[in-house]
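Hi everyone, sorry if this is the wrong subforum. Our group has a chain we'd like a structural model of before ordering constructs, and none of us has done structure prediction before. Sequence below.
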Amino acid sequence: MKSVSVLVLMELYDHRIRQGIGRYAAEHRWHLTVSDGCTLPQGWAGDGMLVQINKRADFIRYVRRQKVPCVDMWIFRPDIPLPRISGDQRLLGQVAAEHLLERGFRQAAFFSSEYGNLHKLRCEGFSDRFAEGGGHRPKNLTWALHSKSGSDNWRAQHAWLKRMMTALPKPLGVFCYSDYDAAKIEDICLEAGHAIPDEVAILGVDNDPLVCENTPVPLSSVRHDLFRIGYDGAALLDRLMRGGDAPSEPILIPPRGVETRASTDGFVTADPVIRSVIKFFRENLARDIGLDEAVKAAGLPRHKLKEHFSRVLGEPVYATLIRLRLFEAKRLLLQTGLSVKEIASRTGFCHAQHLNNAFRREARCTPTEYREHDRRQASPL
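Answer:
Right subforum, don't worry. Here is the predicted structure as tokens:
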């Protein structure tokens, strides 16, 4: 039986997409010819192509000349009619907005060095969801829309970003197009003395360990499911090579949640009274505390503090305490191997069942289910 010959032609390199393709190819005994886009394999003759199309005209001409089924594994160029699979770019932005809103941010910005269809979709998803969730509409800090000096003019971009970040209100959540852009924002913040994450929280996309885990403040990142894009893209090509119909719309792959690291691992508010109460709560989560202790920490009469929380946060003081306890419990579930009983003790729940009940009300699952779901999200197929 003749093996299927598939060309992998990617203008942009990503090892996780290739891993997904490789897994499918191994399972189906394909022969792969792989090019990184720097050179085009003249004279290639095979059964199908998996490509990433972006800007190169010679690349696009080459793809159009081939008379075999082809799947584009990105959505840089929706104007070119091809069967397509991509991460759900709007949903990536929406997940980022919910992550920052959950942490109390009401001011935000979107930053990208470049501009194209993907940047536009991520920005729109983020901005719309952030505003719907009660935040101010985020500031668009797309460098390519503000400058004619080019996205690679690092010095000019750095100076511009520093001015913009200094001028924007704090506390501020910044969602970046990629982890590489997130690292640029972190450099600016550290240089300017902005505390991360209390003054500026930073969130990237792709969860690239090389970048995220090796910055001075490790970067949180939306888990773009790149492995699945490669695997499902290969499955789509297989269907087309067998005579199946192409989908009428791009197949969109949802993200796998957020990998939370220090750059967003906090809960903030701009209000000084509420900040003082939150600070007290966070330092005393394991204790049996409530409204009476919050009144002492804030130095306000009981009725004044209740009115202030209701007006600023739209919730009672005790509801804020429960949110902080659940926030810390989630962090410990995802970042430690502590038992549910120990986490309940550390976060002020009187016993594991109390924490269990609170999780069911807020997250509609148990703490153990929450932990297992995150582990499944973080893993490839």
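For your construct planning: Residues 187 and 215 are 9 Å apart (CA to CA). The two ends are 28 Å apart (CA to CA).
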